[in-house]
Write a structure and sequence with these properties.
single chain, TIM Barrel, Double Stranded RNA Binding Domain, 3 domains, 8-stranded parallel beta barrel, 3-stranded antiparallel sheet, 16 helices, 16 strands, 40% helix, binds 3-methyl-2-oxobutanoic acid, binds zinc ion
Length: 501
């Protein structure tokens, strides 16, 4: 193995399954194991056999698949645990015993010497069954360093194959990890060193990488950073950082990272936070005008790596920071062509919604664009809405009062209806009847995105007394406003048609 090669030891099926609320069936475990194997991890820690019959069944089924990755199982330093491991048809065991004074005193009730003897006894027993042994001194980072070093030296002498250093409660820092890995490294000679970091202080990935820089050649990781409490070092972050930022050689196929993350999230039911590095929804999403403009000129301006490298696609979204370039590109991708004026109006509308705290989805943008493209030009609009007020409720008759500007003059009227939309549209018909007798022929309303703040899209057909019909649409977060805007747009269209003939 080249000195630059770092092994990826995936413990999604063991430490990852210890995520609060996660329990995997044998079928789930098998599906994840197969995907991890496709992904190219070197070792899969398939489970902790002593936990249950189902766990043993799952491990046996994974072992029967003959995957390329090595399979490993976890065991405490006890014959019972090792026998359960032997029952799983796996030849790689991960043995552990706690070494910190805290764990020795309050959990194991053993002296340092007794813990070491127990470790040696278990190693000898496992070795006598021909197992490959990786050994962890649990809570290593809170263990007295001199004792930890002498502990690892002693177990190296009885023939462990690999030593793993767990930062069990995630309290290490990159500099303390460097010190521990270097000290253990000098004590164990050519035996490979592995690192296992928890994320209690958000340092799991940084600490894992510090360990590799200090000489560790294996990293324990979990997909999406699952694991006890705040989780373990995230596979996707460790793998991409090791390969791209540090230039280490790893077997993981980066383009399969995203699909693996999705699969594990779906099966475990653990949602991935949107701003999570590499696999979060926002990791390759650009909203601000400055960024999208940069991205469209050259993606490297605001992307550290091409999204395709990890199996993802770039996404531009519309929001209050959006700019013309980004929105134009999004509309092009939707197959919509807009004039400069239309684009300006669309951008204003998107920003206005953003200022109101509304997230503009692709569907919203499409509705906004559809409602604005092909609109009667503002200088040709003879009817404009000035004010609208509606009253509705359980004990009142829905009433609307509308102020319109028609050819520069303002008119006000009020009407009642079966609901606020009906009342508002009737009031508009009433005000405009001397100019154009328009009648609503069809009315369709759609809430584009879910939620009570969804953007509403109204599509109408209006007919005048000469039999002209036009369709119009409008999108607004207020249903009455969307209806009124659609109606006024329809009437402006009718007026311009009537002028043409
Ligand atoms: O975090 C830990 O210490 C562990 C051990 C079992 C290695 O997961
Ligand atoms: Zn752990």
């Amino acid at each position: 193995m080249s000195s630059n090669r770092v092994l990826i030891f995936d413990t999604t099926l063991r430490d990852g399954e210890q995520t609060p609320g996660v329990a995997l069936t044998p079928d789930d475990k098998l599906t994840i194991a197969k995907q991890l194997d496709r992904l190219g991890v070197d070792i899969i820690e398939a489970g902790f056999p002593i936990t249950s019959k189902g766990e043993i069944e799952a491990i046996k089924r994974i072992a029967a698949e003959g995957l390329s990755a090595k399979l490993c199982v976890l065991a405490r330093c006890s014959r019972e645990d090792i026998d359960a491991a032997l029952n799983c048809d796996v030849d790689y065991i991960h043995l552990f015993i706690a070494t910190s004074d805290l764990h020795l005193k309050y959990k194991l009730k053993l002296t340092r010497e007794e813990a070491l003897n127990k470790a040696i006894e278990s190693i000898e027993y496992a070795k006598s069954h021909g197992l490959y042994i990786e050994f962890s001194a649990e809570d290593a980072t809170r263990t007295d360093l001199d004792y930890l070093v002498s502990f690892y030296k002693s177990i190296a002498e009885v023939g462990v194959d690999k030593v793993n250093i767990p930062d069990t409660v995630g309290v290490a820092t990159p500099s303390s990890i460097t010190r521990i890995v270097s000290s253990v490294g000098s004590a164990v000679g050519s035996i490979p060193i592995s690192i296992h970091c928890h994320n209690d202080f958000g340092l799991a990935v940084a600490n894992s990488i510090a360990a590799v820089e200090a000489g560790a050649r294996q990293v324990h990781v979990t997909v999406n950073g699952l694991g006890e409490r705040a989780g373990n070092a995230a596979l996707e972050e460790v793998a991409v950082a090791l390969k791209i930022l540090y230039g280490y050689d790893i077997g993981v196929k980066l383009p399969l990272i995203y699909e693996t993350s999705r699969l594990v999230s779906r099966i475990t039911g653990v949602y991935v936070q949107p701003n999570k590095a590499i696999v979060g929804d926002n990791a390759f999403t650009h909203e601000s005008g400055i960024h999208t403009h940069g991205i469209l000129s050259h993606p490297l301006t605001y992307e550290p790596i091409p999204p395709e490298l990890v199996g993802r696609r770039r996404r531009l979204v519309a929001g209050k920071h959006a700019g013309r370039h980004g929105i134009m590109k999004m509309l092009e991708e939707m197959g919509i062509k807009v004039s400069d004026d239309e684009l300006k109006t669309i951008v204003e509308k998107v920003k206005d919604l953003g200022d109101k705290g509304k997230k503009v989805t692709d569907a919203d943008l499409l509705a906004i664009a559809r409602s604005i493209t092909g609109r009667v030009k503002s200088e040709e609009r003879r009817v404009k809405l000035v004010e609208l007020a509606v009253v509705t409720g359980s004990r009142v008759i829905p009433t609307a009062s509308v102020k319109l500007e028609v050819d520069g003059k303002t008119y006000v009227a009020a009407e009642t209806g079966v609901g606020p939309v009906d009342a508002a549209l009737k009031t508009i018909e009433k005000i405009l009847s001397p100019t154009v007798k328009a009648r609503l022929k069809t009315f369709r309303l759609e809430a584009i995105t879910g939620g009570s703040d969804a953007l509403a899209e109204v599509m109408i057909v209006v007919e005048d007394d000469r039999g002209n019909t036009v369709s119009a649409r409008a999108a607004h977060e207020d249903i009455v406003m969307a209806s009124v805007e659609a109606m006024i747009e329809g009437i402006n269209r009718l007026i311009s048609i009537r002028r043409e003939y």
